[in-house]
Amino acid sequence: MKINLVFISTIFIFFFSCDSSNELVSQDLNGKKSLVTKTIYIDQIIQGTKTERPVIIQTSANINSDVDYPIVFALHGKGGKNTSWVNQLKSFTDSGEFVGIYPQGHLDSWNLGTEPSKADDVAFINSIIKELENYNNLNMNKIYAIGTSNGSGMVNKLGIHTSHFKAIAPVVSQLMESMPIKDNTKPLSIFQINGAKDSTIPIDGGIAFGHNFLDALKSAELWAINFECALPPQKKIMNDKTIYTFIGCNDNKEIKYIRVENGGHNLRPTYPNMFSDIWNFFKRF
Prior knowledge:
Elements lengths: L1 H28 L8 E9 L2 E10 L10 E7 L8 H5 L1 H5 L4 E5 L17 H12 L5 E11 L1 H12 L5 E5 L17 E7 L10 E3 L2 E3 L2 H11 L7 E5 L2 E6 L8 E6 L13 H10 L2
Parallel strand pairs: 3-4, 3-5, 5-6, 6-7, 7-12
Antiparallel strand pairs: 1-2, 2-4, 8-9, 10-11, 11-12
């Protein structure tokens, strides 16, 4: 009986050791995290207080280990939640078109200067990207960003102050006087969309939420001038959309501005294919 107990104990120790060592070897050889849908938390000091900020990672249920997926950040509007993006972009993430990254704005807003949040959101996005480098199956050379309303202002800010993004899509907002493009801003492609009947952010420019917004077309032209695109833009009218396209930009980038004549601050009812058009634009860069 004594021998059997020793024998059983030896077997238990052997198998336990093998399982542990296999796990350790796997971590040593790879050292990266598996890509799955989940919420992660990024710590940030905001006005002297350590704050945990949630970020949703949304992926296909069936990750192909041989594929490095593009990354699309999506930023909600003021008062919004990152969870709102889960269903809006689910068809793309489910089919493996890209991995969605949905950060939460502090106090449900992005800090552009007059918002409730005083967080350094550029630093926050930088921290998220640094964390994403620890994951398998992500293409860190194909990072894009969509933003709506206040989130649109934030993706413009990210386009100006970082070099992470190949292309951005500011939706129902535009550049502000307080956010000039810098001399060292790296050229990127931009897909800007505004609704002509937007009563929240003035398409013709003006004051709203403490910001002085540029005229929407002038905003697109300013990007184009800074990236040395050909002027004037190509212009095309399709149904209720007027499309301005600036080509010949530095680094083979492109600026596209769409004015939706019947569109308000919520463009989905009048532009149901908006996210498909944005993704098709992103894929070109």
